[in-house]
Design brief:
By secondary structure, this protein is an alpha/beta fold. It has one domain: Rossmann fold, CATH 3.40.50. Helix content is 51%, strand content 11%. It has 14 helices and nine strands. The strands form three sheets. The chain has a five-stranded parallel β-sheet with strand order 4-3-5-8-9, with helices on both faces. A two-stranded antiparallel sheet has the order 1-2. A two-stranded antiparallel sheet has the order 6-7. The relative contact order is 0.13.
Length: 388
C-alpha cells in the first residue's frame, strides 16, 4: 500500500513538472507583473526601483531585460505598458520590436513610471549608445503620474524650484492614482523562505495559466450572470458577445477623465511640464546623434470605442467623454510633436486592427493592459511608422 502511495505521489510530481515545462516552452506562460516581484524598493528620485532577480526577468540594473547591456541599438522608456504587464519578457512590445527589426533592445519601462522618470533615465539611455530612443507614452495617466511624482518626492519639488517650474496646480484633490491600492510604493523584499516560496508558486506557468485561462474567465462569467439575473449593475460595463469579452468600470471612466481633461488646471500644468521635458530629451538625443521618438499608447476604452458603437452597446456619457478628452489630448500632443520635430506614432489603429481580426487583445477583466497580440500591435506601430 505504501509503495502504491509513493508511486502515486511521484507520478503526480512528474506530471506537474512536465506540465510546467510544456507550458513554459509552448505557451506565453508564466506571465509575471512588476507588482508580483519581491524586489520593489523605495527610491528618492524614481519613487521605487526593482532589484536584480533572474526569476522575474529583472537584470542587474533593475530593469526588465534578459541581461544588462553595455550597448543597444534601441532603448525604450515607459511605464507598465512598456514593461509588458500581463506577458513574459519576450512578448513585451520592446522585444517584439527587436525581433521585427533584428536589433538589440534595452527596456527601461517600469509600471507607475511617468514622463519625469523617463526624463531622469534619459542619460542612462544615452550611455547605451543607441541609434533610437523610443518613449511609450501612455495617454490615460502619464500626465497624472507627473503631478503625483512632484507631490510625493522632495527631490522633484526642489528640481522644480531650481528650474523655475510652477507645480502649484499639481497639488489638487482631482489628482487620482489609477493603479490599485495594493500597488502602493513600499519595500517588498521577502522576509522569509515561506514568503519567497509563496511568490515562486504564484508565478509558475501552471498557476498563471489557471488564473488567466480558467479562473479569471470564470469569475467574469459569474459576475455577468449574477448581474444579469439580479438588478442591473451601475458600476460595470460587461462586454459578453463571445468575440471580445471584457469589462469596463464606471469608476475608471471617471478616473481617466480626471487624468486627461486639459480643462483641469493640474492636467494643463502637467502637460506644460511634459512638453518641457520632452523637448529637453529630444535636444539631448540630437546632441548625441540619436533618433528620438514617441509611441502614443491608447486606453482600452479608446481601442474598443468604435467596436462597441458598431455592436450597438449603450455606453454611458462618461465613456463618450473619455474618448473626447483622450483624443483631444492626443491631438494637442500631435501638434506639439509636429511643431518641435519629435517623431511620433499612434498605436491605436494597430491595436484596433488586432481587435477586428478577433485576436485576444485584452483580458476578460478590468485590466487596461493588453495581452501579447496587443503588445505586438504596439511594436508594429513603431516598426512601420518610426523605424522603416
Amino acid at each position: 500500500m505504501k509503495t502504491n502511495s509513493v508511486l502515486l505521489i511521484i507520478s503526480i510530481c512528474l506530471g506537474v513538472i512536465i506540465l510546467e515545462i510544456g507550458l513554459r516552452f509552448f505557451t506565453i506562460f508564466p506571465v509575471i507583473s512588476w507588482v508580483d516581484s519581491p524586489n520593489l524598493n523605495k527610491d528618492e528620485i524614481l519613487s521605487f526601483t526593482l532589484a536584480y532577480n533572474k526569476q522575474y526577468g529583472i537584470d542587474s540594473n533593475g530593469f526588465r531585460n534578459p541581461q544588462a547591456l553595455e550597448n543597444a541599438d534601441i532603448v525604450t522608456l515607459g511605464d507598465s505598458h512598456t514593461f509588458g504587464f500581463n506577458v513574459k519578457t519576450e512578448y513585451s512590445w520592446p522585444y517584439q520590436l527587436g525581433r521585427m527589426a533584428s536589433k538589440t533592445v534595452y527596456n527601461f519601462g517600469i509600471g507607475n513610471f511617468g514622463i519625469v522618470q523617463y526624463y531622469y533615465l534619459m542619460d542612462k539611455a544615452i550611455n547605451l549608445n543607441p541609434k533610437n530612443i523610443i518613449i511609450g507614452l501612455y495617454i490615460p495617466n502619464d500626465l497624472n503620474d507627473t503631478c503625483l511624482l512632484f507631490k510625493q518626492l522632495n527631490y522633484w519639488r526642489h528640481w522644480a524650484k531650481e528650474n523655475n517650474v510652477n507645480i502649484e496646480n499639481c497639488n489638487c484633490p482631482a489628482c487620482v492614482e489609477l493603479e490599485p491600492k495594493d500597488n502602493a510604493i513600499k519595500n517588498t523584499s521577502p522576509t522569509s523562505f515561506h514568503s519567497y516560496l509563496k511568490s515562486v508558486i504564484k508565478n509558475t506557468a501552471i498557476v498563471t495559466f489557471t488564473d488567466y485561462m480558467i479562473w479569471t474567465p470564470l469569475k467574469a462569467k459569474l459576475v455577468y450572470y449574477m448581474k444579469k439575473f439580479n438588478k442591473p449593475d451601475k458600476t460595470l460595463i460587461i462586454i459578453d458577445d463571445g468575440k471580445q469579452n471584457t469589462i469596463f468600470s464606471y469608476n475608471r471612466l471617471i478616473g481617466v477623465n480626471n487624468n486627461i481633461d486639459l480643462k483641469k488646471q493640474n492636467i494643463q500644468t502637467a502637460f506644460e511640464i511634459a512638453k518641457k521635458l520632452l523637448v529637453e530629451m529630444k535636444n539631448k538625443a540630437d546632441q548625441n546623434n540619436i533618433a528620438f521618438s514617441v509611441l502614443c499608447i491608447p486606453s482600452k476604452e479608446n481601442v474598443y470605442y468604435e467596436y462597441l458603437l458598431n455592436s450597438h452597446y449603450n455606453l454611458p456619457d462618461d465613456f463618450h467623454l473619455l474618448i473626447e478628452n483622450e483624443r483631444n489630448l492626443l491631438n494637442e500632443f500631435s501638434k506639439f510633436f509636429n511643431n518641435t520635430g519629435i517623431e511620433w506614432t499612434d498605436a491605436r489603429p494597430y491595436v484596433v486592427n488586432k481587435l477586428n481580426e478577433q485576436a485576444k487583445v485584452y483580458k476578460i477583466t478590468l485590466d487596461d493592459h493588453p495581452l501579447a497580440p496587443g503588445y505586438q500591435a504596439y511594436a508594429e506601430a513603431v516598426y512601420k511608422q518610426l523605424l522603416q
